[in-house]
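re: the backbone from monday

yeah here it is again, tokenized this time
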């Protein structure tokens, strides 16, 4: 009966045979090789340990009585090696007395075959222990898979909790402001009291913009997570793209007297999804404005290399401590820090930035220190 293949279809079970008598090695080889096994013949203990290190066997047939290092010592060393400890060892010996059999099993062996060999017995025991070993490996793999799935579920739960937290708390706050100041405006108009109307209207406008920004990030994040956001890369000119995006922030930056500067090459063609890169810039520039003090400045720069474009959004703002930098791009660890004018945020924007940049095969990171400003840097492939 030929060997059953319990590993990947292409894997041939590898049996290491250890005996100091050449006739025994040849006999076991003649028994096992026709069954479809790969056999390796080793005449001593030291060589057996080296052979097992070079190519891990699926099963070891190990003689007990050998000069230099006996089979018991070989087995002890195998079991002490984390990389080889799970390999089943079948002892082979003419010493068929009970004490030696017990010692063989307590040393780490899984079975014992007496000499002279019976071909049917050798084949049956080899098949049995190879099958048991494969089942053990499969159980271990399933256990590891279960651990990975458990971690993934924990991550998904954290994501879900964060998502509902954003909706329940961060979205509620600007709507309360809109509703509250709208009621004040209505009442003032009824009473023809126009003092402060412009200020209240500005608050409503800002709160509305915050709500829209948050909803856009939420919708983009949900679409990305559910696979409904298509990734459509194309060739386009990045320098003009950056200029158009930054112009949209001139009024918002002007309200805090923040100058937006650009240090860009004449042109830089990239291969990217414009909608995703737009989201990355929108969030990074918004954050830079949020955390820069009135009168500060923001610089957007780009450096072109043969295979990648590196873009930096640098601000002269409040900076970020090291312990917070490590949490910036993790949804389960995000936090909301008020801006220099008490602007609100969720941290979801940076999560989107990370996912969209990595979707392009790029990287995103931050370099910052408290009170020294921040640099958010990301890379995307050059055309």
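seq for it, each position gets an aa:
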């Amino acid at each position: 009966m030929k060997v059953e293949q319990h590993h990947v279809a292409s894997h041939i079970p590898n049996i290491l045979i250890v005996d100091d008598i050449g006739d025994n090695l040849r006999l076991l080889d003649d028994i096992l090789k026709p069954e479809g096994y790969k056999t390796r013949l080793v005449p001593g203990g030291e060589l057996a340990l080296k052979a097992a290190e070079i190519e891990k066997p699926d099963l070891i047939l190990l003689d007990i009585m050998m000069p230099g290092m006996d089979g018991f010592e070989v087995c002890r060393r195998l079991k002490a090696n984390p990389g080889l400890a799970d390999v089943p060892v079948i002892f082979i010996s003419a010493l068929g007395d009970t004490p030696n059999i017990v010692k063989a099993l307590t040393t780490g062996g899984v079975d014992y075959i007496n000499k002279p060999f019976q071909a049917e017995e050798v084949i049956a025991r080899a098949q049995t222990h190879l099958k048991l070993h494969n089942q053990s490996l499969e159980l271990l793999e399933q256990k590891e898979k279960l651990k990975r799935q458990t971690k993934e579920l924990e991550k998904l739960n954290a994501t879900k909790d964060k998502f509902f937290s954003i909706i329940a708390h961060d979205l509620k706050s600007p709507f309360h402001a809109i509703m509250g100041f709208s009621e004040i405006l209505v009442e003032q108009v009824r009473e023809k009291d126009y003092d402060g109307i412009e200020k209240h209207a500005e608050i409503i406008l800002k709160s509305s913009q915050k709500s829209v920004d948050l909803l856009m990030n939420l919708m983009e994040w949900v679409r990305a997570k559910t696979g409904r956001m298509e990734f459509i890369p194309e060739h386009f000119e990045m320098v003009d793209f950056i200029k158009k995006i930054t112009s949209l922030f001139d009024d918002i930056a002007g309200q805090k007297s923040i100058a937006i500067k650009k240090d860009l090459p004449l042109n830089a063609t990239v291969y990217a999804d414009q909608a995703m890169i737009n989201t990355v810039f929108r969030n990074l520039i918004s954050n830079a404005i949020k955390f820069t003090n009135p009168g500060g400045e923001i610089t957007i720069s780009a450096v072109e290399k043969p295979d990648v474009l590196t873009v930096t959004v640098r601000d002269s703002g409040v900076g970020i401590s090291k312990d917070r930098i490590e949490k910036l791009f993790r949804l389960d660890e995000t936090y909301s820090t008020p801006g220099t004018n008490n602007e609100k945020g969720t941290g979801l924007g940076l999560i989107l930035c990370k996912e969209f940049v990595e979707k392009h095969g790029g990287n995103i990171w931050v370099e910052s220190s408290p009170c020294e400003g921040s640099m958010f840097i990301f890379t995307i492939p050059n055309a």
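Residues 72 and 106 are 10 Å apart (CA to CA). The chain is about 50% helix and 15% strand.
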